[in-house]
Design a protein that fits this description.
The complex is a heterodimer of chains A (about 375) and B (about 600). With about 375 residues, chain A is α/β, with parallel strands linked by helices. Chain A is built from 15 helices and 15 strands. Chain A has helices spanning about 30-45, 70-80, 100-110, 125-130, 135-145, 165-175, 195-200, 205-225, 240-250, 275-285, 295-310, 315-325, 330, 335-340, 360-365, and strands at about 1-10, 50-60, 85-95, 115-120, 150-155, 180-185, 225-230, 235, 250-255, 260-265, 265-270, 290-295, 315, 345, 350. In chain B, the strands form seven sheets. In chain B, strands 10-9-15-6-7-14-11-12 form an eight-stranded antiparallel sheet, covered by helices on one side. In chain B, strands 20, 21, 22, 23, 24 and 25 form a six-stranded antiparallel sheet that branches. In chain B, strands 2-3-1-4-5 form a five-stranded mixed sheet, sandwiched between helices. Chain B starts with 7 loop residues before the first strand and ends in an 8-residue tail after the last helix. The chains are: A alpha/beta (about 375), B alpha+beta (about 600).
Chain lengths: ~375, ~600
C-alpha cells in the first residue's frame, strides 16, 4: 500500500496559524503551476511504474480555491501515469465557502471519494480572528452539497478563550452536518505566524487547558461512535483515513508539487517551497528536490516506532521484524522495562495506554538511541 | 645583565570593589606607553571572560611598565593587580608580599568603605608603604576633602597630597606615577646572595609546563639555572624567564627586586605551591621567605560531573584550578544520587561561583554543585569528636551528644539610617549583637557574631537589598559555638536525595524545609507522573509540595512532510533532558541542587 500526495499552494487568504506552503498572492500562477504539476506527475509516474498506489490526497493551501478542471486534470494525469488500485481512496481538502455543486460534481466525476473540510471552529468570531474566510453557516451549506459522502472535518483546540462547551458544540455541528471523521488538532503556534504573537502575549490556553479540551472532546466523540485511532484523529468504524494510516505505518508515498515530501525505497525527499523555483526546475528538467536523506538503521527503526505509537494499532512486531530483521522486544528491552507502566505489550504489538497517548513524547524519546 | 634595584618600584593597587582599581591600572599602562589607547580593550588586566562580565578582578596579573620620572631617570614599575572581593582577601595578601608599596584608591563620592579598610590594614600588616589616591573626581558628587579627612581619621594615612584623579578621564595620572617613584621605596634585596624567589601565582601552560609568577627577593636566575623549591625535593632546569609587558616576554635573567615568571618544564601541577620559595640547587638559600598565611576554606560543597564519565576530566580541571588557587580544597566524594565527584572547600560563595563557572567555561564540563555547607564539630556520645563537612556524613542522632558550628565576627559598615533593618536581618540570621560604633556622621560600624551557615546562603544579597547597596560587610573566623542543629532531608517521590540534604538550626528547619520544597517544585519540570516533594527531619515529614504530572506532551500532527522535523524536535527535547540528572525515577535539572540556597528567606 502506497500513497500519492499532491500539493496545491494557493488559498484565498492566509490563516493566522498557517505555516504551510500556501501563497494567496500567487494565485495568478495557477495555470502554469498545474502545467508543471502534470509534468511532474508524468515524470514520477514513469519512474515508479513498478509500484502500486492505493490512495491519493490533494492538500494545500486550499485545493478547492482553484477551478475544479485543474484538480480533475491532476487526477486524470495520476490515473494515466501511476498504477492506482481501482478502489483507491482519493481525498481532497476543501474549505467552506469555496465550493459549489458544479465543483463537487466535477471532483466526483474523476473519482474523488473523500472530502476533508477545514471547519476549525463553529464560532464565527473565532473564525474571523483566525482570518478564516468562511462562517459556520458556510460549513452547513457545504455539508449539504456533500450529503452521503465520506467527509472529515478539521477542528482546532486551544484557541484564545476557547471553552470546552464551544469545542463540543463545534463537534456537534460537524456531526449534525454528517461527517464520518474528525481531526482535532491542538493549535501549535509556529514561529513567524501571526498567532505566535498571541502565544507570546499569553493569550492562548496552557497545555493543561488544551488537555482538558482534548479529553472532553475525546469522551464526547466516543459517545457519538467516533473512536480515536490516532493522537488527533477520530472516526466512525470503517471511516479511518487510509492515506494517513499509510504515513503512520511508515509506508511509501510520493509527494508531488511545491513543498511535497516523499518516502520511496528508504529515501525521504522534499520539493522546494517556492512556486517559482519549482516551476523552473520542472521546465528545465531539473529535480525540484531541496533535501534528500536515506534513512537507515536506528533512525529508520525510530521513525517506525515514533509513527506507529501515534495510533491505536501501535507497533506491529512482526512487521518490525520483517522490515528491520531484529526483534524489537529484545533490542529495546531496556526501554520497554523503563516505560512498562505506560505501554501495553502483547505477542503481536505494542501500544501506548489510552491515558498516555497525549503525553507520548517522553515514551517515544526513550527509543531514541544516542 | 642585572637591573639596578634602585630603578624598580613594585606596587599593587588596593581598593573597595568598584572604586576604580582596574581603570586606574589601565590608565597607568596607557600613560607609560605599555599599550596604545587604540589597542586597548576595556580593563586590560581583567583577562578572564568571567572577570570582565562581572566587573570584578579575581586572578592576579602582574604587568611591567617603564616611566621616565621628573628626575630624568627611567624607572621600571611593576604593578601587581589584586582581587577586590572579600572572598579573595587571601589572594590580595599574596600579591602584597611581592610589593613594597600599595596605591590605596578611595572613591571621592563614597569615601572609605569596608574593603578599603580591610585591604589597607592588610597592606599595613605587610609593611607596605601606603600611597592614597582619590578617584572619580569627574563625578559631580565628588567630595575629595571629606574622603581625605576619612583617610586620615579612620586609617591614619596622610592624604594631604594624595593625587585627586579621574581614572576614567585620565586626570592627574602623571601625578600618580610620579608619587609611585617618590613615595614607594625601591626593593633592597641582595643580588649576590643565594636565590630567593617568592612564587605568588602560577598556572599551567600546555607547552611550557607550570609557569611560576615570582618576585625575586635575593640573587638572580636565568635560563639553565638548576632550581628547587623548599617544599618539594624535586629539581628543575629553568627553560625560560621573563617579564610581563603586559604579555609574557622572555628575558635573559631576573635578579633581585624584579617581578617576572619562571618556566622550568615542571609537569606536575602539584610540584609548585603558591607561597613557596624557589632557590638554586648549587647555592641554596638557608631559609625560605615567609610564606603566606594559609587560607582556610570556609564553605564546602559537592561538585559532581553531570555526565558520570567525565569524572577524570573534572579531576584534572580541579587540580589545574587549584594550582593557582591555594584556597581551593579538593577531596574525592561520592553520593548515592550523583555518583562520584569531589567535596570542595571554598573561601566563600563568590569563590564557589567563580570556580564553578570556570570549570564549565574553561574546561567545558557540565557540573552539579550541591548546597554549600560549613564544617561542623560533632561530639559523639562515646566521647569522640568528628568534623562533618557533608550533611550525609552526619551520624545518627542517637550517637550525637551535641554539635558545634563555626561562627564569624562580622563588621558591617553602613549609613546610620539602615541600622534598624540590619539589626533585624542579623537577628533573623541568629546573630549576636556585639557593638555599634559611630565612625563619623555618615558611617556606622556594627559588630555581630553570626553563625557561618547563615552567612553562606543569602546574607550578602539580603544586606545589599535592605540597605540599597550602601552597607558593606567583612568578616573574620571566630571559632565554634554549641548549637542545636538538625539534618534536613529532602525526599523526591518518597526517596531521600542525599545531595539535597542540609544541616540547619532546629528552629529554622521547618521554614527552610518549606522553602526548599517550594523551590524544588518550581525547578523540577513536570513528568509523566506526580512527584511528591517532602522535607523531613529525623524521619518526620515537615513540609510537602507536589509537581503535577504533565497532561500534554505530544506532536499534534505528524504526516508525510513532518517526519524529519518531528524527529529532530524529539532529538532536541532529548538533548535537553541530558542536562538533567535522574534521581530514582525523577529527573532533576542540575540547577535544582544550587537553587535551593537561593531561597529568599527573609521575605
Amino acid at each position: 500500500m502506497s500513497g500519492i500526495y499532491i500539493h496545491v499552494p494557493f488559498c484565498k487568504s492566509k490563516c493566522t496559524y498557517c505555516d504551510f506552503a500556501s501563497f494567496p498572492k500567487e494565485i495568478g500562477k495557477t495555470e502554469s503551476y498545474f502545467a508543471c504539476l502534470y509534468r511532474e506527475i508524468e515524470g514520477r509516474g514513469r519512474q515508479l511504474k513498478d509500484k502500486t498506489f492505493s490512495t491519493v490526497y490533494i492538500g494545500g493551501g486550499t485545493p478547492s480555491v482553484v477551478p475544479s478542471k485543474f484538480i480533475a486534470g491532476a487526477i486524470r494525469q495520476v490515473k494515466k501515469f501511476f498504477n492506482l488500485t481501482p478502489n483507491a481512496e482519493i481525498t481532497i481538502e476543501i474549505n467552506p465557502g469555496t465550493v459549489d455543486a458544479d465543483k463537487i460534481k466535477e471532483y466526483k466525476s474523476v473519482g474523488i471519494n473523500r472530502f476533508s473540510i477545514g471547519l476549525q471552529t463553529g464560532y464565527d468570531d473565532q473564525l474571523k480572528r483566525l482570518n478564516r474566510v468562511h462562517t459556520a453557516k458556510d460549513f452547513l451549506l457545504c455539508m449539504n452539497l456533500l450529503k452521503g459522502e465520506n467527509v472529515s472535518a478539521d477542528v482546532l483546540l486551544g484557541l484564545a478563550d476557547q471553552t470546552l462547551e464551544q469545542v463540543l458544540k463545534t463537534a456537534e455541528l460537524a456531526i449534525a452536518g454528517g461527517v464520518k471523521h474528525i481531526s482535532a488538532y491542538a493549535l501549535t503556534p509556529e514561529v513567524g505566524t501571526p498567532i505566535y504573537t498571541d502565544y507570546l502575549n499569553g493569550e492562548l490556553p496552557s497545555g493543561d487547558e488544551v488537555a482538558d479540551l482534548y479529553d472532553g472532546l475525546k469522551e464526547y466523540l466516543k459517545r457519538k461512535g467516533f473512536n480515536r485511532y490516532e493522537v488527533s484523529n477520530f472516526a466512525l468504524d470503517g471511516f479511518e483515513s487510509k492515506h494517513n494510516l499509510n504515513y503512520w505505518m511508515r509506508g511509501e508515498y510520493i509527494g508531488l508539487g511545491v513543498s511535497a515530501s516523499s518516502f520511496i525505497d528508504g529515501r525521504r525527499f522534499t520539493n522546494t517551497f517556492s512556486i517559482d523555483e519549482y516551476m523552473n526546475a520542472i521546465i528545465y528538467n531539473k529535480s525540484p528536490e531541496i533535501s534528500s536523506d536515506v534513512i537507515e538503521g536506528d533512525d529508520a527503526e525510530f521513525e517506525f516506532i515514533m509513527l506507529a505509537l501515534r495510533t491505536r494499532y501501535g507497533i506491529d512486531l512482526a512487521e518490525f521484524k520483517k522490515q528491520f530483521g531484529v526483534d524489537l522486544k529484545e533490542k529495546y528491552k531496556d526501554v520497554l522495562a523503563l516505560k512498562a507502566e505506560y505501554i501495553n505489550v502483547t505477542d503481536k504489538n505494542i501500544t501506548i495506554k489510552d491515558d498516555y497517548l497525549y503525553v507520548q513524547n517522553d515514551i517515544i524519546m526513550a527509543f531514541l538511541r544516542d | 645583565m642585572s637591573v639596578n634595584q634602585k630603578k624598580i618600584r613594585n606596587f599593587c593597587i588596593v581598593a573597595h570593589i568598584d572604586h576604580g582599581k582596574s581603570t586606574l591600572a589601565d590608565r597607568l599602562m596607557e600613560k607609560t606607553g605599555q599599550v596604545s589607547q587604540r589597542d586597548m580593550e576595556e580593563q586590560l588586566l581583567d583577562s578572564m571572560d568571567l572577570e570582565r562580565e562581572r566587573g570584578i578582578t579575581i586572578k592576579l596579573t602582574p604587568v611591567r611598565m617603564f616611566y621616565k620620572a621628573k628626575d630624568g631617570e627611567e624607572y621600571i614599575l611593576n604593578l601587581i593587580d589584586t582581587p577586590g572581593h572579600v572572598d579573595f582577601t587571601y589572594e590580595v595578601s599574596r600579591s602584597l608580599k611581592a610589593c613594597e608599596g600599595a596605591i590605596l584608591i578611595v572613591d571621592a563620592t563614597q569615601g572609605v568603605q569596608a574593603q578599603t579598610l580591610a585591604n589597607a590594614y592588610l597592606a599595613i600588616d605587610n609593611d607596605l608603604e601606603i600611597m592614597p589616591v582619590i578617584n572619580k573626581m569627574d563625578l559631580a558628587s565628588a567630595r575629595p576633602d571629606e574622603a581625605a579627612e576619612e583617610l586620615e581619621n579612620i586609617l591614619g594615612v596622610d592624604a594631604s597630597d594624595a593625587p585627586r584623579i579621574s581614572a576614567k578621564n585620565g586626570l592627574n595620572i602623571e601625578e600618580v606615577l610620579e608619587q609611585v617613584v617618590t613615595k614607594i621605596p625601591a626593593p633592597n634585596g641582595d643580588a649576590s646572595a643565594p636565590l630567593k624567589a617568592l612564587i605568588f601565582d602560577s598556572y599551567y601552560d600546555n607547552f611550557k609546563g607550570v609557569i611560576c609568577f615570582v618576585r625575586i627577593v635575593d640573587g638572580s636566575v636565568k635560563v639553565g639555572t638548576k632550581i628547587k623549591t623548599f617544599m618539594s625535593d624535586k629539581e628543575f632546569v629553568v627553560t625560560e624567564v621573563g617579564v610581563f609587558a603586559p604579555k609574557m616576554s622572555p628575558k635573559e635573567d631576573l635578579s633581585a627586586g624584579e617581578v617576572g615568571y619562571i618556566a622550568a618544564s615542571i609537569k606536575s601541577i602539584e610540584d609548585t605551591a603558591v607561597g613557596d620559595t624557589i632557590t638554586t640547587v648549587e647555592n641554596p638559600a638557608k631559609q625560605p621567605l615567609d610564606g603566606y598565611k594559609k587560607a582556610l576554606p570556609m564553605v564546602f560543597s559537592g561538585v559532581f560531573p553531570l555526565d558520570g564519565s567525565k569524572f577524570n576530566d573534572l579531576k584534572d580541571a580541579l587540580l589545574k584550578l587549584k594550582l593557582n588557587d591555594a584556597a581551593l580544597s579538593i577531596e574525592p566524594d561520592s553520593s548515592a544520587a550523583l555518583g562520584f565527584g569531589f567535596r570542595c572547600g571554598f573561601l566563600g560563595l563568590l569563590h564557589m561561583d567563580v570556580i564553578q563557572e570556570r570549570i564549565e567555561r574553561e574546561f567545558d564540563i557540565d557540573i552539579i554543585t550541591t548546597a554549600p555547607s560549613v564544617s561542623y564539630k560533632v561530639y559523639k556520645t562515646d566521647g569522640s569528636m568528628m568534623i562533618v563537612e557533608n550533611p550525609t556524613h552526619l551520624p545518627p542522632t542517637t550517637e550525637i551528644d551535641y554539635m558545634e558550628e563555626p561562627v564569624i565576627s562580622a563588621s558591617i559598615f553602613t549609613p546610620p539610617e539602615y541600622v534598624g533593618p540590619i539589626m533585624e536581618l542579623c537577628q533573623y540570621k541568629r546573630g549576636v549583637y556585639k557593638d555599634l560604633i559611630y565612625l563619623d556622621k555618615t558611617r556606622v560600624e556594627m559588630k555581630y557574631v553570626l553563625p557561618l551557615n547563615e552567612i553562606i546562603y543569602d546574607f550578602f544579597d539580603s544586606l545589599k537589598s535592605r540597605t540599597k547597596g550602601y552597607a558593606s560587610f567583612d568578616y573574620d573566623v571566630a571559632g565554634y559555638q554549641k548549637s542545636e542543629l538538625v539534618k534536613l532531608d529532602m525526599l523526591l517521590n518518597g526517596d531521600i536525595c542525599d545531595a539535597l540534604s542540609v544541616i540547619v538550626h532546629k528552629d529554622k528547619a521547618y521554614e527552610r524545609g518549606r522553602q526548599i520544597a517550594e523551590k524544588l517544585k518550581d525547578v523540577i519540570p513536570r513528568q509523566m507522573f506526580e512527584i511528591p516533594i517532602q522535607a523531613a527531619v529525623g524521619g518526620k515529614i515537615i513540609a510537602r509540595e507536589t509537581v503535577k504530572a504533565f497532561r500534554k506532551d505530544v506532536l499534534a500532527k505528524c504526516y508525510g512532510g513532518d517526519v524529519t522535523r518531528k524527529k529532530k524536535l524529539l532529538e532536541k527535547q532529548k538533548e535537553g533532558k541530558k542536562k538533567m540528572r535522574s534521581i530514582g525515577t525523577v529527573e532533576i535539572p542540575s540547577e535544582a541542587f544550587i537553587s535551593i540556597l537561593k531561597t529568599d528567606s527573609d521575605d
